[in-house]
Amino acid sequence: MSAALRAEGLVRVFPSPGGDVHACDGIDLELHPGELLVVRGRSGAGKTTLLNLLGLLDRPTSGRVVVGDTDTTGLSEAQLAGIRRDRLGFVFQSFGLVPVLSARENVELPLRIADTDPVERDRRVAEALDRVGLGGHGEQRPGELSGGQQQRVGIARAIVSDAGVLIADEPTGQLDSRTAATVMDLLAELAHDRGLAAIVSTHDPLLVARADRVLELHDGRIVGAPATVPALSRAELRRRRAGH
Q1: pTM of the model
Q2: Is residue 71 part of a domain?
Q3: Residue 104 · residue 135 · CB < 8 Å
Q4: Which of 14, 31, 161, 183 could cross-link with 5 by S-S, CB 3.0 to 4.6 Å?
């Protein structure tokens, strides 16, 4: 199976008064459809920098990022923006929702930007909210939702455009442990059931059990061989989401 997302020799150097900081230092990885890959490491290990590079939010000092069969090296900002819009979905630690908009309106933002037909837009938004278990909450604003529900809205927004790759940077960082586990179960289920290629950064060892593979980062480098973790069954994921 060909990779949905690939990094080759990825390096990102930030200058500082004390000398250059290698936030990413020769990262090689492949992410495949249907896979949940967890990147873990302590604060400052380079997780956010790596995800920013993979998500085309930053450019590497050297190396390259390949999305599907598209080498993004040397593409213009407009071309990168098009790939981000059409092929990548993002989930953020801070949820990233617009407070004055309803859940439905937040989810439909990427489709409005893409000028999607209104009928198709409504269908996709309803489907995405149903998929994350919020079908009855579309008219509520973020302030009326719990933290876990807000993050589910963020996930619905990330998948509404049918992007093949989901990138989540510490998506459970602001959630309690029980809610965090439920959100990670949802991400795993989306990867396994919908065939998404999902990469998630976390420092929480309790969330690693949801992963298919784990990469350990230390000082911008992958430490040791990637670990393969037995994936939870779909039945187990649904049971956990139901809170049973």
Answers
A1: 0.87
A2: no
A3: no
A4: 31
Enclosing domain of residue 175: 34-49+77-215+222-242
d(CA 59, CA 53) in angstroms, rounded, equals: 6
CATH number for position 179: 3.40.50.300
State how far the Cα of 113 lies from the Cα of 85, in Å rounded to an integer.
8
Q: How far is CA 75 from CA 1, 27, 65, 139, in A?
A: 26, 20, 11, 39
Report d(CA 194, CA 137) in Å as an integer.
23
Rg (CA), the chain: 18
pLDDT 10s digits, 121-170:
999 999 999 999 999 999 999 999 999 999 999 999 999 998 999 999 98
One-letter amino acid of 17: P
Structure tokens at 166: 């989901």
Both structure tokens of 16: 């500082």
* Dist. CA 221–CA 11, nearest whole Å: 10
- Structural tokens at position 132: 């994350």
The answer to whether position 21 is within a domain reads no
CB 111 within 8 A of CB 119: no
